[in-house]
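Summary for the funding panel

The consortium committed to producing paired sequence-structure records for every protein in the target list. Below we show the first two records in order, beginning with the earlier of the two.
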Amino acid sequence: MLRLHSDEELETIGTRFAASDALALLLIEIEPLGRIELRYGSEAYSSALERLVALIDEVARDVLPAQDVFVTTERGGDTILLFMFRPRSDREFYTGGLLELRQQLTIELLQQGKHAVYPYYRDPLSPGIGGAITLYNPNVQPARQILKAVEVSRRDAQLERGLQARERGNEILDLILREDIVTRYEPIVEIETGNPIGYEALTRGPEGGSLQSPERLFSQAKDVGLLFELDCLCRRRAFANAHCLPRGSKLFLNLLPAAIGDPNLRDEGLRANLEKYELDPGDLVLEISERESIENFAIFRELRDSYREFGVQIAIDDAGAGYSSLEAIMEIAPDYMKADMVLVRGIDTDPPRREVLSGLRGVAERIGAEVIAEGIETEEELRVVKELGIRYGQGYIFGAALRNGS
């Protein structure tokens, strides 16, 4: 059912449709808009939607005269409707120009759409775009013809999203099978001496590709059900390239909570990996990522105890960034708490951040853990972190990460 904002809008579209004797429609579904409204409220939703409408209108008017373009939205939905009224005689537009405009909209929404929904949604948009062409029939109500065009476009958009999902799945599967990832090792430094105590293994997708960003890489793997397989690949590559790190350095290895099912991290599997890559158990720190919540702390504590008996240490990532990481600290009592960069960024000019980081250090002392301040970029931030008694730091100020252990 088409839900425009008023009967006047539908009447306007119908009048222009009759005058041009033909109509082209592109229906754009922006799925994250619903999530933005649920999480940040209707004002944030309206703001993001308004910016997206403006972007789509601008792209269309670069191709067509302004009087031939009408952009609107479905009331209470996440769909933008781009109506175009070119004369039926404009065969060049209907047989080729419309497809080119659709492709250009896809590109612009991928490249510029993220700015429209920022800061509420940080991943690139993957819009579903469907289209329809309707020739005016004077024997049928314009509203009925317009509704039919919307229905056709919606089915086309759903088909497009299905094809996109298949392409994303194939892209991730191909990456995993070819092991086409880049591993970098970012130093974790003792602030007092400036000496690295260890290195965190970080993963990127192929350089210059659509999956280079780790956020996009892991998000897409999760969407297509291959997050566990990608996580395992990242650890294998991190182990394999760690031989070039300084001897005695700790290797901070990220893993998702679901990794407790990976046999390569259990008992003999872990022992075999450490022997294969000539690593001492005491040099390994398993860093629990909060990309996914830990669902069963009882099982995780058992695993933690077996790791500690073996000599492997545990770190909690993104400490202080949200309830889930604080809950993990209380339940797991890690050896390291990595203070999220959100707490560190601008801490020299933000007293509340200093108070939170100081409180986190107090918690660490009481449970026998060490705090690592992530994301330190400036001398001023480093100075405050040091004044707060934080022993270890990580970030741009300490130098670039090593690529693949080289």
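The next record, for a separate protein in the list, is shown here:
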Amino acid sequence: MALVYDILHGKKDPTPMEPGSMQPGPIQPGPTQWALFVHGILGTRANWRSIARSWVNAQTTGPGTSPARRAAVLVDLRLHGESQFQPPPHTLQAAAQDIVDLLPRLQHELGGPPLAILGHSFGGKVVTLATHRVATSTQAGQLCPKQLWIVDSALSANPNPEGASRDEANSATNVSNTSRILRDLTQLTPTFARRDDAVTQLVQMGHSTEIARWLAMNVRRDRAQEGQPFRLQLDVQGISSLLDDYFRTDLTDAMQELTQACQCHLLWGGLSNTVSLLEKQALGSMGATHTHTIENAGHWVHVDAPAELGALIQQHWQ
């Protein structure tokens, strides 16, 4: 099944004025610029809505040109949000292929290749692999983005991500801590009278109230069973498989090759420990990559520093 996605459109193009007249002239819309935003593990397409909305609403125009119409695509990855029914195997490769399969539809609907594709954390690895597949295919000219943005995502392999402390897990600054979160989700009771009951159980397991409430967003009633108990609406085993494959997969060589196909931007939170210093140095030394660090942000860069991140996007996505 196709992934579920939303398209956000920007403000209406300004109505041009005929020379020497106070009456509006005919609408002459500029080209559509569009970008794809991809969330991380246990996230949904809503995570990046605020950043995406700010970008599409900041229409720009150059001397003698009409405004570029902007659109942002927000997608739920497989087993996340409303994209719950993709068939196995649940691997990084399958998640990337879901994006590859979606791009022709978006290209047709929005009239061209994406200006940018952005992926956060697990989603960063997904879009790196997806873009690499597109860039090395016969459809590269129609589907390859001009820019690829990887936000606080480790592209190297890390097959043994265990050992994070509970304090680190509560800060949610390291994607490896998601392994413990997934284990704890399997220990929840099958049903809940209220969503807050799930929050209480997660807090008792040692998670912060903030993280517990975020996780409990996945605790819902079945839409076809009004009045029934709340249940965790996540395929925890499937998501665990996705995460395991994330840690096993090394995409540093793919990134090196991608620098020849599109502009590659690597953005890190200065307070995050998701990407090691050694990896940052290796990726930065590729020469054709553009690196950015938002010093006052942790792993959740778009939450910790939305203004700084938004300014970077506005600066580069023209």
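Regarding this second record: The first helix runs from residue 49 to 57. The two ends are 33 Å apart (CA to CA).
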